[in-house]
Every structure is written in structure tokens, then in C-alpha cells.
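Sequence only, no structure available. Ideas?
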Amino acid sequence: MDNRSIRKLEAELWESADLLRAGSKLTSNQYCMPVLGLIFLRYAYSRFKLVEAEILKNRPSRGGRVLPVEAGDFAAKSALFLPKEAQYDYLVNLPANIAAAGLVSRDGHPMNSLSEVVNNAMALVEKQSEQLAGVLPRDYTIFSDELLSELLRIFNNSAMDDVGGDVIGRIYEYFLNKFAKNIAQDDGVFFTPKSLVKMIVNVLEPKTGVLLDPACGSGGMFVQTGDFVNNAGLSANTAMTFYGQEKVEYNAKLCLMNMAVHGLTGVIKSGDEANTFYHDAHNLAGCCDYVMANPPFNVDKVKAESCESAGRLPFGLPGVNKSKEVGNANYLWISYFYAYLNERGRSGFVMVSSATDSQGKDKDIRKALVETGHVDVMVSVGNNFFYTKSLPCSLWFFDRGKPAERLDKVLFIDARNYYTVVDRTLNEWTDWQLKNLNAIVWLYRGETEKYAALLDEYRAVLGDAPFSERAEQITKELAALRDEAKAAVESAERKEKKRVQAQYDERAAEIEELLTVAKEAVWLTDKFGEGKYRDISGLCKVAQRSEIEAKGWSLTPGAYVGVAPQEGDGVDFKQRMAEIHAELLRLQAESNELMETISRNMKELGL
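Reply:
I predicted one. C-alpha cells follow.
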């Protein structure tokens, strides 16, 4: 199943499930955890079946019968063993009259509703994993049996069997993303957009060691790190040790579920003991190979004395008011992210943009940080990258193992004008854009072989022709297809017009996707050719420590990279007007068809 089909499946599942939520009058807060729990169960079952088939391949037999699989067989393969009553197909195929089925819970109590059976399934799964104890939702009684049965059916979509376990994990993330967007309140802002998380992981390049996220939310940093390590040919659970702190217990449960969905294990602490301002819950100061986080911005009223006694402040406290409170905790977080690192550790985190040149004690801490030589990369990110906030942010990167030749240098990247529009309120970096940004970091580090490998990736998709020529060729192909589509739709019978248009739209979408790749290849090679770093006005600059001092220890990329030469917006005006005109004609045709149908119906009614 290709990306487009998977995206369609994700959207269809969300639309169906959210329609049920609207019909049940449940809030997103109430609905979120139980729905994610069902997707979790579906994913766990998918992995169970895959691993079971693998185990049975070489299973010994006795007396002509293959030995049954056991929980220990699954533990050896980092997968959950599911008792029969917790398997998804068992739940989907239960009779409508649960009370008459004579079902008994793991505690020996009779079960009279589907919600009780699902609650029991969650309890059985928790029993298989110490990490999941007390984590999975057990509040399915908020649903009627009819609604719960329909939800189970939705997530048993036959297409889910075709996409495989990894993609079901992706669908889980899609729902997590959508709920984060819908739950727009302070304690619901727990989801860091994937493109920001990927950028952090790609720059830090985790391989082995201890990873801490002291504001771990739903665990996105762990999941992306797991993917990065596994894609490098290692086993994430063997190579990495994951630790997290999350004050909001609800979010910590999501984190543990999210990790389990992706086959990861870790130690996550929550509640008051996980308030990072006052507790180093895992005693990891100075011990971490990697620290990643998206902490809450601009937190106030942090008790200065309690904070100071908790340590991890190598550069001292930020400003303290007369109430003995830290009025803005941004530089507490920044200090923690540095203090947790060991002598070779790397840190990457999201921070509000204003922190790059805030004054007072913040400036003193920033100066001390720059003077360590361990500030490595600073990236400015534009508006609308978050699902519930529109403010711009910055990505900060520390590297305590920076080589001597780079200790007096910082790479600044201003990516505020480099993104893809998802919709009116949301932007993101595509995978190719992430690779391009990462390529700037590679060249700054002298890792030209990685840049060369990226060019090979582009050639594998686009062919060996120069990228600019290939982009021009694809543009012409797209224009020709649109002309062909216009003629075909105009000549088609009225009842066939929509079908014909849809077929051409699908073909056009494939070519547009290829054109996007070609444009990104041109963007990269126009600036860095075959692989030599250079400062690019408006995009990137390697600044010396003396330059940073001259600018008052500011770490704002825009202060260094300058302004890019004015360029066009990349839109072919003639082509775009043709597209708009074609769309208008199509809408007019549909409108006329609808009016004729209404008129005909009214005549039939004698009106």
C-alpha cells in the first residue's frame, strides 16, 4: 500500500470514528484515550499474528502436534503475548447478546456488556507487560455497546491487514496527532509535530546510550529515536535506554502506550515526583548521551529556592522576583538540557523564539553557554508548526563532544521561509525538506559523504539527468496531462465526468509528488552543488564566537544570516490561473447538473 492510500485510510478511519464521537456527545478528552486504546489493541494483535507466524515456522512437535506458543516465546521477540480474550478478532466476533454468552472476567465475575469485555481485554494485556500496568484505558462503559461495537468494526477495516504492523503504528500516531489538534487547552498540548521531532533526532543522530526527555508528553522523541536507530540496522531497545519525566499523568500514559505500540520499552515517571523543576527523577545529571525535549514555554511562578536545591543549574538561576519565584522558566529548561549531558552528550530541544536574545540573567546564562563552545546549531522555525499554537519557535542543539576546530563556531539556520503548507493554520517540513536541512548540518560538520548519499537518493527517484532539467521536464508533463484531462472531461458523458476527472486527478497527484522532489533537489544543489558548505544569505551562516559577542550574545539566526535576495514565489501564474479556471468550469457544471436535478424532481412532485 503506497503513501497516498495510507493517508486516505487514515482520513477515512478518523472521519468514521470522529463522526461516532459527535453522535455520542462525548468530548475529545473523554473519547481520546479509549479510542487510542482500541487502535493500540488492534496494533498489538497485528504484531501478535506476525510474531506467532514467525514462531510457528520452526516450532517443534510432539506426537504429531505442534507445541502451542507461550508468553515467553513472545517476550524473546519484544512482542506482547495476547491471551485469546484480548485478541482483536475475538472481540470483533462476539455475539450481540453478551449477557447470554456466559463470559467471565479474569477476576471470575460474569460480564454482561461489550464494554466490560473490552475492559477485561485491557486488563489481560496489562498483565503481560509491567510497563503497561495501570496505563491502558478501562473506561469503556462510557460507550453504549452499539457504539463500541461500531468502533471495533471501524478499526478492523480489511485494509489494516494489508498495510502491516508498522503502518498501524503510523495510524495510531495519526490519531494521536488529530486528538492533539482537537484538544486545544493547556493540559492537552502534549503533541510535538513530527517534523520538529524528526529534525531534532536527525541532527543528534542517536546511536547507543541513555536518552532522557524530561518533558516527554506523548513520547514522540522516543518513537522517532527508535525509528532512527532501527533504520540504522540496530535494535533500539538494545542500543538505547529511554527515560522520561512527565508531570501530567494522562500524558505519561499516552507516552507508555505510544512506546508500546512501537515496540519500545522505557522508564517513565509521572506526577509530582516528575516535576522537572524540583526533581531529577532518574538521577541522571551528567549521565545522558542524548537529551531531547519540547518543554512548556514561558512558565512562571517556579519556586526559586526549591528549584535551586534540586540542582542542575551550572550557570546559576535566571531572574528571581521579590516573591522568590523565577518569573520565566525558559532558561531553567535550557540549563537542565545542558546539565544532563555527559562529556560527549548531545542535546536538541524546542524553545520559544524570544529566548534566543532575552535579556537580564537570561543573557548571562546564554553568554556562559556560548563560552563553553558547546552550542552547536541554532534553527529558526516559522509560525504554524504547532497544532494548538501559532507562535514561531527555535530549535537549539548542544554538543559537548564538539571537535576543537568547531568550538568557536555556531551554525545558524533561518528556516522560517522554508516549509510546506498543510492547511490554513498548519505548516510542516516534508521528509525531503528535513533531509535538505540536515544536509546543511552535515556540510558544516564536514560529513560530505552523507551529502553525496542524499544526492544519490534524489537520483534514485529522479534519474541521472540534471535536477533542473528534470524539474522542467516534469512540469511540462504535468501541463500536458492537465490539457489532456480538460479535453477528456469535456468530451465525456455527463454522468462520467466526475469519474474521468478523478482518474486524471490521481495521475496528476503522482506527477506533482515527483515534481516536488525535483524542486527540493534543485533547491539543495543550487546552494551547495556537489557538496561544499557555504554561507547562504537568508538561510545559513557559520558565525565565530567573536561575532556572537559583538551581537550581545544573541543566538537569533536572523541576526547572522541576513536577508535572502528577493525571489519569485515559485508559482507559475499562467499555470495557476488555468487550474483555477478549470476548477471553476467543473464547479459550474456540477451546479448546473444539480439545478436540473432539482427542477426535474419538483416537476415530478407537481410543483
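The chain has four domains: 3-173, 197-446, 455-532, 573-607.
Hope that gets you unstuck.
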